[in-house]
Amino acid sequence: MTPAARAQAAIDLLDEILAAARGNGAAADTLIARYFKTRRYAGSKDRRAVRELVYGAIRRAGEPPVSGRAALLGLAQADTVLASSFDGSSHGPVAVTAGEPVAPAGIAPAWLETALAAAIGRDELPALLDRAPLDLRVNRLKATRAQVLAELPDAEAGALSPDAVRLREGIAVEALPIFTQGWIEIQDEGSQLIAAAVGAKPGQTVVDLCAGAGGKTLALAAEMGVPTTGRLIACDSDRNRLSRLPPRAERAGAAGIETRLLDPGREMAALADLAGRADAVLIDAPCSGTGTWRRNPEARWRLTPERVARVAATQARLMDVVAALVRPGGALVYAVCSLLDAEGRDQAAAFLARHPGWRAAPAATAGRAHGDGRLLTPARDRTDGFFIARLIRPC
Ligand SMILES: C[S@@+](CC[C@H](N)C(=O)[O-])C[C@H]1O[C@@H](n2cnc3c(N)ncnc32)[C@H](O)[C@@H]1O
């Protein structure tokens, strides 16, 4: 592909990504993969170059641009080579006309910038869109961090989690023998700290309420040394996600994890037998994902105040419902990969106000104190953005 043809491909993709953002369609990565599936003439260098253009344009535009072309013209403002590809050549973008819309540069839609700046300060906002490193979690059930580092000469030990290994450059981790043998999982170092905040121990009963495909469940299993005399119960309302957990657990050597599919709004129907019996319950709650823009920068084009309010209502409901599972003196660990106070600090404070006698305990050693929990941010902690609170039921 010529540079101009690559630019036109990026414009077409950006149009698709914008339409998906408006209509709650597929993620950018999925759309890019689909696009190239039907364009076999594009070689690996073309794909990489188009992807760079697409993500560069997405990262640069805080507000959703009016079109893919406006997004790429915005990126071209600081890139003369890209600007010169708007030359009207065949397969390339038509030449620029006077007064054409150009997407303004920005971090996020204005309402989100204001809300995030209130939580973390304006200085930290640009790092929300940095390129994320690739973090791995060493599976203690199968290997030590020293063994994994010996297999990955370009990796370094993570600074915050004892199991973290960080790669500066993305590599095809899933093709590595140490992956197929279950020594490692792909997991952001901040996510590893959420699992650690649960403080799960052998012999305990631990519930992972929103386990998804089990990223944190497997970290909990490694802490508990499964199989043990304890119980680890992974739940989710999404059958597909939850069905991906058993094969991962098998690879990780984490036998004995129970899975339970929950009916949203009727979660306790499947959990009643555990009432008052859990040493710890982790709610890795569904959230707006404002802390993960390093990986999904177009997610900020999808958010609306109404969406945040909806997800916040679900978070509060889940906390109230499953508090009943926690035994006296046990812990409810609440976490979101969002930096909005409406989903983090304010949720923990409102829960404590609604549940007299419960108290907040230290949730992690990393990050900064924020209300009744802790906040991890890309700028200060070099992790995705998270809020974590550890709430203790009265004895
Ligand atoms: C942040 S994700 C969890 C990620 C997962 N813990 C991990 O480490 O990979 C939130 C999860 O909450 C689930 N969820 C949403 N509503 C739920 C509900 N009412 N009960 C249980 N899970 C729910 C979603 O399906 C999603 O998998």
Strand content: 15-25%
Q: Main beta sheet: strand number and arrangement?
A: 9 strands, mixed
Query: What is the N-to-C order of secondary-structure elements (H for helix, E for strand)?
Result: HHHHHHEHEEHEHEHEHHEEHEHEEEHE
- The CATH homologous superfamily of the largest domain is termed Vaccinia Virus protein VP39
Q: Could you name the CATH class of the largest domain?
A: Alpha Beta
Oligomer: single chain
Determine the fraction of residues in helical runs and give it as a percent range: 25-40%
Query: For the CA atoms, what is the radius of gyration?
Result: 22 Å
Low-confidence stretches: none
InterPro entries: MeTrfase_RsmB-F_NOP2_cat (IPR049560), MeTrfase_RsmB-F_NOP2_dom (IPR001678), RCMT (IPR023267), RsmB-like_ferredoxin (IPR054728), SAM-dependent_MTases_sf (IPR029063)
GO biological process, one term: RNA methylation
Protein name: RsmB/NOP family class I SAM-dependent RNA methyltransferase
Pfam family, one: Methyltr_RsmB-F
